[in-house]
Specification:
By secondary structure, the protein is of the alpha+beta class. It contains eight helices and 15 strands. Strand 1 and strand 2 form a beta hairpin. It binds 3-[O-phosphonopyridoxyl]--amino-benzoic acid.
């Protein structure tokens, strides 16, 4: 097989400009070395961010989480938070996305090093920014809600690789995603090592029981989602009670409503879990209210 000349329908648009270590380069020229530890070991950190009307949503929170993730893995980002922010806006502008809605992938890799794990044998972390469109779930799913399942792959143990670190090593989530997709579920719920609900592969989870919002706490081993935070604020503004509490699978099965939050998904209703309908099997009123509040928020901020 001619490996070098295969057609890849998922290849990036050649006119896309990537911000790579200080300059905007065409996608075809935006290359990272095969010696980069980000590739060799998943050694690096990233953020998935949205811009609405050209403004980066909760920019400071995303940049802060990036630096926190980097600090946790002893990666020194060779830029200031302001420089990172400017690089993201420059990438939007360079791709004709100023003033528009877009999706930003911000990545810091450990950089080129020797063929060993040691971070002492790497010297130059690389930073790149991709700005493009991202697919939400199909629009119909936002009307009907979606069916999700819990999967056997458990969320990584916080003492092994903390889910609070948004690292380039996403295999834990990818394995769970495969299990979901094999069962025709677009998203999968992962439990932690204690059997408590943690989060989905790329989304946080909320349930509504007796009018109260419940969501797993940080201690359950989750990524502290920026969208999760925004939704908690919106709910409290409406006077709702939000409890961060450990939940088991049974708790999920008996709730009136359930929804997921994430940068890619925004807010989306879940209408069945492991084949059990949630509430009456349609997106619930509180979920719909929070979806609408979230849409208002992203246009207002
Ligand atoms: N949990 C995990 C494990 C995530 O990866 C979230 C929760 C939600 O966090 P935010 O801050 O986005 O509200 C994430 C975020 C994708 C994709 O393509 C996934 C994320 C981000 C960007 C894209 O599925 N995950």
């Amino acid at each position: 097989m001619d490996l070098r000349n295969r057609k890849n329908e998922f290849a990036p648009r050649p006119d896309l400009k990537i911000w790579l270590d200080g300059e905007l380069v065409p996608a075809g020229e935006a290359k990272i070395s095969v010696f980069d530890h980000g590739l060799l070991y998943g050694d690096g950190v990233f953020e998935g961010i949205r811009s609405y009307n050209g403004k980066i949503f909760r920019c400071e929170q995303h940049v802060r989480r990036l630096y926190d993730s980097a600090r946790a893995i002893r990666l020194v980002i060779p830029m200031t938070p302001d420089e990172i922010t400017k690089a993201m806006y420059d990438t939007l502008a360079g791709n004709g996305l100023a003033g528009k809605d877009a999706y930003i992938r911000l990545v810091v890799t450990r950089g080129v090093g020797t063929l060993g794990l040691s971070i002492l044998k790497t010297a130059c972390p690389s930073v790149f920014v991709i700005a493009d469109q991202i697919e939400l779930y199909p629009p119909a799913l936002y009307e009907t809600g979606m069916a999700v399942i819990t999967v056997p792959t458990m969320r990584s143990h916080p003492a092994a690789l903390s889910p609070r670190i948004k690292s380039l090593n996403y295999l834990n989530n990818i394995l769970a995603k495969i299990e979901g997709q094999d069962a025709n579920a677009p998203e999968a719920i992962m439990l932690n090592h204690l059997g408590f609900v943690a989060e989905c592969t790329g989304d946080n989870i909320f349930v509504i029981r007796d009018g109260k919002l419940q969501t797993p706490p940080t201690s359950a081993g989750i990524l502290e989602g920026v969208t999760r935070d925004a939704v908690i604020e919106l709910a409290r503004k409406r006077g709702m009670t939000v409890e961060e509490k450990d939940l088991v699978r049974h708790d999920l099965y008996v709730v009136q409503e359930c929804f997921l939050t994430g940068t890619a998904a925004e807010v989306i209703a879940v209408t069945s879990i492991d084949g059990r309908p949630i509430g009456d099997g349609k997106p619930g009123p509180i979920t719909k209210q929070l979806m609408s509040d979230f849409h208002a928020l992203i246009r207002a901020e």
